[in-house]
Amino acid sequence: MQNTTLAEFVSSTRDSLGLSQKGLARKANIDLAIIESIESGQDLFLSTTVRQKLAKGLKVDNRNIKALEKQPHEPEISMEYIEEVRLRIIAGQLKGHICPVCKSELICRVAEMYDLEDNLVRHPKARCSKCPFQIK
User: Fold this and answer.
1) Rounded distance, CA 96 to CA 57, Å?
2) Rounded to an integer, what is the distance from CA 102 to the centroid of its chain?
3) CB within 8 A of 93, min separation 6: which ones?
4) Strands 120-128 and 134-135
5) What are the residue boundaries of the structural domains of the chain, listed by start?
6) Closest CA to 83 of 63, 100, 61
7) Cα(61)–Cα(55) distance, integer angstroms
């Protein structure tokens, strides 16, 4: 693969297929804004679904795309920070949490399930809106 970035690879492969950004978006069934974001270099990490659709639209193996994605190097994240976020989520504070990796907003929720004795168990969950960071 001679391209050095995901943006260059998507752009040049799209051009070689004779597609516009809009044409690729249509062919891959992806929102045009996502294609624009990838080709401008803003999106460096793709969800599995977007990667698969993009690979199909570009007629390439999705491993070619994954190899060019930037995997964030997770910094040391203190367990105190994780526990603090968990407690706030359980308390109902679902907005305003920041990802310790990329500083984007965390999408938070409380998963409710029942244990074997039919007791309600609440688990705080959070995932970053931009990178793979998550609290399970």
Assistant:
1) 36
2) 12
3) none
4) antiparallel
5) 6-68, 79-135
6) 100
7) 6
Q: Could you tell me the two tokens for 94?
A: 């679902």
Q: What is the largest CA-CA distance in the chain?
A: 60
* pLDDT single digits (tens) 111-125: 998 989 999 999 999
- 134: part of which helix (H) or strand (E)? strand 134-135
Dihedral angle sign, alpha carbons of residues 64, 66, 72, 76? negative
2 band by pLDDT with thresholds 50, 70 and 90 = low
First to last CA, the chain: 36
Render pLDDT for 63-115 as a digit per residue (tens, 0 to 9). Answer: 989 888 876 555 678 889 889 999 999 999 989 898 888 888 899 999 998 98
In CATH terms, the fold of domain 6-68 is 434 Repressor (Amino-terminal Domain) (1.10.260)
Closest residue by Cα to residue 64 from 111, 109, 10? 10
45 pLDDT higher than 90? no
Spatial contact of 34 and 43, defined as CB atoms under 8 Å apart:
yes
How many C-beta atoms surround the C-beta of residue 135 within 10 A?
20
